[in-house]
Structure formats: structure tokens, C-alpha cells
Design goal:
Two copies of one chain form a homodimer.
Chain A: H1 2-9, E1 14-15, E2 37-39, H2 44-57, E3 61-64, E4 80-83, E5 90-94, E6 99-103, H3 108-116, E7 120-121, H4 134-139, H5 147-150, E8 157-163, E9 169-172, H6 185-189, E10 198-205, E11 207-208, E12 212-219, H7 223-237, E13 241-248, H8 249-258, E14 272-280, H9 283-286, H10 295-309, E15 315-318, H11 322-333, H12 335-339, E16 345-351, H13 357-371, E17 376-382, E18 387-393, H14 399-415, H15 431-437, H16 440-453
Parallel strand pairs in A: 2-4, 3-4
Antiparallel strand pairs in A: 1-2, 5-6, 6-10, 7-11, 8-9, 8-10, 12-14, 12-15, 13-14, 16-18, 17-18
Enzyme class (chains A, B): oxidoreductase
Protein name (chains A, B): FAD-linked oxidoreductase
Family (chains A, B): Belongs to the FAD-binding oxidoreductase/transferase type 4 family.
């Protein structure tokens, strides 16, 4: 097998034994596994050759790019892992057309830098951006902190190139905004977690870089006032809120424990800490005035001041420099490290309507101690889109208890019109949830599609579908 | 058969003979056909019952809603037509959550009115809005004039309910902005032209109604200056251009012939007529100032004035009232009547990058007379998204000539990085184009999906897939 793979991608690009360490667990360490080998093709043609070989030899393939997922989507016992990390070229980047054409192994923050260099942004962003790669972002339809304004990953993709389970290459690298020509395979492959095809490249949408940002940390008496703030800012700015992130007091506390040199957001610790960021694109909102402020910053300060006077704000700090803005973001983006700083943890990733985040948390605060009195919740939320990362520090490695906690979280989320899965995907960790929560006719249709496109079941088996 | 169907949906809702006239051709009259019967279920359960019956009896079903398509997607010889027109309820409309929950038979303009009544908009709009229904909009992923700002139909849909070819109901009526739970069946069914399932209801996104619009007719020396205008307006307003529509002189002329009482856009007829509309949502852009103008109207006028002084504008008229604005829109929205006012016509619907619209038209002006010297082009374009409706008035009903003209249009569009199909879909009219232009691996995957979900081929056979 090793010789056959080496013939396809070169000996140096087939890893075994110790050389596979980097790929033999997810980054949280929750899942450990032993792939047969790791193969690192350097081109779409090489990916296709490996998949064809896998078909002929009935070998299962687990695609992997940045390996920063949280749902066990790259578990690869008894499979060959196909790493896309060598396909790391930005093939083209044309600001005038607002597109970047990138390979699956491009690291998200490298694309951020390349876009920034031409005064554009690729808006998708989240804590793992320094390791996460485009292939994984697309395969999980990653969300993150700017969904409120720019949508999920799929909303930022114009075209893709993918190797199908047969080894054939679907080339639909359209740069067009209208292109209705048959079933939308792009949207089918995005979010399919590598079970229907391996995305090798994509045409991504760039957006104009906001000419000015205004960023603040805000403390409110409850989440109700936070939503008032969000709505007032959206109305005042015509929908310019880029991010609206909720960190409870415990998030701040654990962040300080992990990073003792970090500054606390407020002099007095607060229960509700909101990171709000507004971005301005129209020149009239970006130009620094006589008062040394941009109009967008003035809108933010005026709104905060008014709410303070109405008693709806406990404290607020507006970033006065890019360094202060980055400090605010680093605190938020440490959430994965914070959640995984204690084990065992249960990474619940749910979504509810925005005004149901508070009732969800209130109900869980009652339910969790009933199930596991010694458990602790560690929460962070994209409040602007209703996505709550309700991580639970379980008291012990009890699998049955783990599942009943997950089930309770789902019960509560669904009771408020929510979803059991928001932005991390299903992988292996949410297969039981998928089985018990997803519409049966939808699951039947998904299984039929999987069987039709991958009859031998060679691509990322045991993931996504219960 | 009639008795069986009557037992499922009631005798009054099974049409035969003369009563089927309304459903026995497309609205252009280009396609005429004889369905076995037209059945009009009144609920999702009745749709499911009809599809189950069709499965058991091996009867083919052609779903239809507003029947305003241009690609022959409802041709129904030897099939039972399933009309969704009785499913015309807006089940719920909640401006605070920015959603409307509607059935497939809701007429687009009725949804516009319902949204308007609560100061919201459902942005999808096109000429046939007074007859087109939501089911057809979703099944074709309709585009229209506001795609520039709000996206295509699929970008406006949060959740759907659909009856699958088995008769099972896929219920994924999510209202959430993050909901990654398996393959995206929503996006697969949207744009599938009723071949994979019958969409019966949807959760649609509403947007805040712009507090002010500024609308103008503009004449430029060439399309190059028109794109300068588009870019300047987007930069000045931070992306507030709602529509940017191109009408050549011939469009205006034929419009005047059809509607002799209509006013011409300019005193002197112009070759290039652009309808531009900007919408403002932030209060600071909507408030009427001392000069009687909203700031958004002032931005538009200033931009037009500057370009006029630079010699980049030949003429411009800004709408001074809602009536004038409507007059501008009626002229644009008459495009289908204009194109179909002479027969035989070939409705080519292509997309190219924005800066390739002019080269596309220039090349076609040479190619068309070579193929059919007596043919005439009648063009209208969504210039803001590169979508050109390049209709050809063919000199005779010559099917071979018709196909070679279509092929030439595709050749030229593709040579400029375009697509052979933009917003009208494939239906039956573009099956040859689909066969010769679409990536073969993509077609193979589509056929596998169709066979898996609809093994008996009962849903809208002979459409979309070559």
C-alpha cells in the first residue's frame, strides 16, 4: 500500500508511524486514532489519483486539512488520511472582481493577510484561524464571529472544485453571482464533512475592508438590554454590526487564570460581558473628524451613552487603538482554550432565536445540576446569531451521563425553537443527536444521496450520518 | 384515475379538459401540452398523498405554481400536473424575527404587500411578480433585479418543507442562521426545478424596508461609464445600490410601441439607458433635509452631477415622486412582454463578469448576423450582476438554426468566463446546453442523486437533466 501511494504522490508525502503524530488526534485530544498512513497530495490530480486508488483497493479515506474541528470529524482508525496541507496556494486574488481563488490547504489567517494587503477582507473568522484551512472551513460550513453581517462560510463561496468518491473531478469554479445550471452541488458538498467529495479549491467572495471599526466591551444588567443595544446599533448604522459576542463572568475568570498577564475588561468584574464591533464602509462614516473620532465610533459612543443614562448599561469601554481592539478579540478567541482547559468536557454547540439565549441558559442552569451536581458550565455565545457554545465540564468520564447531558441540552434548545447543531457540524460526536433529532425523511434522503455518490462508502465513513 | 385523485383532494380540485386550459401551456405560448389532469391539493398532507399515489401507480407528476417560467419547466404531456395555487397562505409573518412563513402557492406580490404592511421587504422581485408564486421562485432559484444587494432566492430562504418523491415530508423549517446538521437538502431542493421534491412551504428572510429610495434613469456614452457610476455609488453609500439595470435603445422603442401612452425616459433617445436605485436604511440617510431631499438622494445627485461634469454622463433624470419611480420600474419590468412581442424568439439567459457585458454584446453583434442575417437581438440586462437576457427574434421557426444561435450565445458567454444559464433555469429549453456545457462529472453526480431520490422518475421527468 505504501509503495502504491508513494507512486501517486511521492515517497516523501506518505507518512507512517511517528511521522503521523500530528494527524493522529484532534487538537483537543478528545479523540485519538491510528490511521493506516497519511498521504499528502500536492495537486487536484494527485487527490483524484489517491481516491481512484482507494476505490480500486476498497480503502477508506479520511480527508483532513487544518484538523481544528471539535466534533471528531477526522477520526481515522483503519483509514488512510488524506491531508490537503500541501495544497496551500492562493491561485489568484483579484480585488476588482472581489474574488480569491484558493486551494483547500490555505490557512485561514494567510488568506486574511493576503486580502488585507489589497484593502479587502475575507470575513470568515474564528479562534482557530491560525491553523484552520479553507478545506475544513467549507466542509463544515464554519460559522464564527462575523456571521451576523457576512453569513456562514457557504455564503462566501462562489465556486468549488472537488474530487468525487469515484475520483472524478467536479469543476464548478464559477465566479458568477447568477449561475443556475442543475442541482447545486456546491451547496451539497459544503457542510458535507468530506463524506461526499473532497473539496480541493474554491472561488471565495471578498468584501471591501471597512474603512473604520468601532469596538467596545459592554456590561449590561441582563441579556435583554444587550439585545436592545444590538437592535439600536443595527438601526442607527443600517446593519453595520460585524460582531456581537457574549462572555459570562466565568469566561473572563478562566481567561485570567490561563493568561494571568491579560487585563480584565472592566475594573469591577461583570456578569455579562459583550464584545461589540461595528464596521463602516461608506467614506462618510470612516473619516476622522475634528473631535478625533470617526462618525461610526461616535454612533457607538452615543448609543452607549444614551443606554447608560437610561440605566441599561453597567459599564462600557471603547477601544482607543488597534492594540486595544486586538486585546478584546484575543479574550473572545481564547474560548476554545478556555473550554478545553478542564477535562472531560462536552462541547455542545447549539443555536436558538436571539431572544431565547437567556431562557435557554436559565433553564440549563436548573437542568444541569439535576443531572450532574458537580458539573460546571462554561459558556460563550455568538449572541448576534443565537449560537451558544454551552460547554459542560463533566464531573467524571461517564459516557451515559455525558449522553444524557447532551440530550438535555438538545431538549432545552429544541424547546426554544433551536437546533442541536449550529456551526461545528456532526462529525462523530453528534451522531446520536442527529439520529434522535433530525427529521427522519431528511436522514433517509441524505443516506440515499451518500449511497448514490459513494456506493463503496470510502469517503470519511462513520461521520455525519447516523 | 380521476376518482382516485378526487378521493385524495376533493372532486372540485381535479381538473380535466377545458378546465385545464390555464395549465396547458407556459405563459409565453412557446410550449403547449396536454396533461392527464390537473390536481390542486390544499395542504402538504394532500400533496404527499398525491405523490404516494403517483408512486404506486407509476404516474408522472409535474409540479406547477405560478407557471411564469421561461424554460419549459412545466411541460406535462402524459403527466398529472400538481398545482400548488391553493396552498396560498402566509402562515406567519413576524417582523421582529424578520421571517415570513409561507406556502408554495403564495403570489410573490402578495408577500411584498404583507411585508410592506409591517415596514419590511421581501427583496426578491421581477416582472412576473404579480403571478409568480413562491414555490416556483424557490424551485428555479429565481434572481431578478435586487440580487446585487440581497442575493438570489436561495439567499433569502432559511428553511423549507418539501414532499419527496417517496411521498415522505422533509420538514426543515428552521428559522436559525446557523444550523449545520447533515447535508444541505434545502439548497439541493432550491433550484432543482421540482425534480427532487415538491417544495410546499418555506421560512423566508425579511429585510428592513429602506427608509428612503433614490431612483434615476441615466444615459452614459458606453457601458464602461455605467460601471464607473455603479462603483462610485457603491463606494459612496457603502454598498446601498439595490438595482442597476441596463436597457438598450431598442428596449425603449419596443416598449413605446407596446405602450404608446408611456413616457420616454429622456427627451433625446439614448443608446444606453440605466435604471439605478439606491436604498437607505440608516436613519441619517433617510431624513428629509432643509433642501427637501434625503441624504441618499443627495448622494445620488452629487455623483450624477460630478460624472456629468466629467463627460461621463449624457443625461439623467431622478425620480421626484413614487409615481415617477414606478414609471421607471414599469418600463424595466415590461422586458418579458417586450421580448415575447415577436415570435419566434429565443430566450437566452446568460451571465458574465460585469465588465464583460459590453464585450459579450459587441461579439454577439458580429456573430448573430453571420448565423441569421434577418434575426434581431432584443436585450435587457441586470448589469449589476452581469446577467444578460439576450433574446433573439429569429427570422423563422428553424430548429437547427435556433440551436446554432443558442450554441453561439453560449460560446461567447463562456469565452468571457460566463455561464450558459443564469436565473431562468434549465427546464427543457436548455437541456442541449446543459449536455454540452456542464462539467460531465457534475452531470454524473446529479443523475446519481436523481436516481437515488426518485428511482421511478416520477417527479417532473425530462427536465433539468440531459
Amino acid at each position: 500500500m505504501i509503495n502504491e501511494l508513494a507512486a501517486l504522490v511521492g515517497e516523501a508525502n506518505v507518512m507512517q508511524g511517528e511521522d503521523m503524530a500530528r494527524w493522529s488526534s484532534d487538537w483537543t485530544g478528545a479523540y485519538r486514532f491510528s490511521p493506516l498512513a497519511v498521504v499528502r497530495p500536492g495537486s487536484t490530480a494527485e487527490v483524484a489519483a489517491v481516491v481512484k486508488w482507494a476505490n480500486e483497493t476498497d480503502t477508506t479515506i479520511v480527508p483532513v486539512s487544518g484538523n481544528t474541528g471539535l466534533a471528531g470529524g477526522t477520526r481515522a482508525d483503519g483509514a488512510v488520511m488524506l491531508s490537503l496541507d500541501r495544497m496551500n496556494q492562493i491561485r489568484d486574488l483579484r480585488p476588482e472582481a472581489r474574488v480569491a481563488i484558493v486551494e483547500a490547504g490555505v490557512i485561514l489567517s494567510n488568506l486574511h493577510d493576503a486580502a488585507d494587503a489589497v484593502d479587502m477582507i475575507f470575513p470568515l473568522t474564528f479562534g482557530a484561524k491560525g491553523s484552520a484551512m479553507i478545506g475544513g472551513c467549507l466542509s463544515t460550513n464554519a460559522g464564527g464571529s462575523n456571521v451576523l453581517r457576512y453569513g456562514n462560510t457557504r455564503d462566501l463561496v462562489l465556486g468549488i472544485e472537488a474530487v468525487m468518491p469515484t475520483g472524478e473531478v467536479v469543476e464548478i469554479m464559477s465566479e458568477l453571482h447568477k449561475d443556475n445550471s442543475g442541482y447545486n452541488l456546491k451547496h451539497l458538498l459544503i457542510g458535507a464533512e468530506g463524506t461526499l467529495g473532497i473539496i480541493t479549491a474554491a472561488v471565495l467572495k471578498l468584501h471591501p475592508k471597512p474603512g473604520a471599526y468601532a469596538t467596545a466591551m459592554v456590561a449590561t444588567p441582563s441579556l435583554d438590554e444587550a439585545l436592545v443595544l444590538l437592535n439600536r446599533l443595527q438601526e442607527a448604522t443600517g446593519g453595520a454590526v460585524e460582531a456581537f459576542e457574549y462572555m459570562p463572568r466565568r469566561h473572563i475568570e478562566v481567561h485570567q487564570q490561563i493568561n494571568p498577564s491579560a487585563r480584565e475588561p472592566f475594573e469591577t468584574p461583570q456578569d455579562i460581558n459583550i464584545l461589540v464591533e461595528v464596521g463602516a464602509t461608506a467614506p462618510r462614516d470612516c473619516t476622522v473628524g475634528k473631535d478625533g473620532q470617526t462618525p461610526i465610533a461616535a454612533y457607538l459612543e452615543e448609543t452607549l451613552m444614551a443606554m447608560f443614562e437610561e440605566g441599561m448599561l453597567l459599564d462600557a469601554v471603547v477601544a482607543q487603538s488597534e492594540a486595544q481592539r486586538q486585546e478584546m478579540w484575543e479574550r473572545r478567541e481564547a474560548s476554545a482554550e478556555i473550554a478545553m482547559s478542564r477535562k472531560p468536557f462536552i462541547a455542545n454547540d447549539i443555536a436558538v432565536p436571539l431572544d431565547k439565549v437567556a431562557p435557554f441558559l436559565k433553564t440549563m442552569a436548573q437542568r444541569l445540576p439535576e443531572l450532574d451536581p458537580a458539573a460546571e458550565e462554561i459558556v460563550v455565545a455568538h449572541l448576534g446569531d443565537g449560537n451558544v457554545h454551552y460547554t459542560v465540564w463533566q464531573s467524571s468520564e461517564d459516557a451515559a451521563l455525558r449522553d444524557s447531558i447532551m440530550e438535555a441540552v438538545e431538549d432545552v434548545a429544541l424547546s426554544f425553537g433551536g437546533s442541536f447543531s449550529a456551526e461545528h457540524g456532526i462529525g462523530t460526536s453528534k451522531l446520536p443527536s442527529m439520529q434522535r433529532r433530525k427529521n427522519p425523511a431528511a436522514i433517509a434522503a441524505m443516506k440515499a444521496i451518500k449511497a448514490a455518490l459513494d456506493p463503496k462508502g470510502i469517503l470519511n465513513p462513520g461521520k455525519l450520518l447516523p
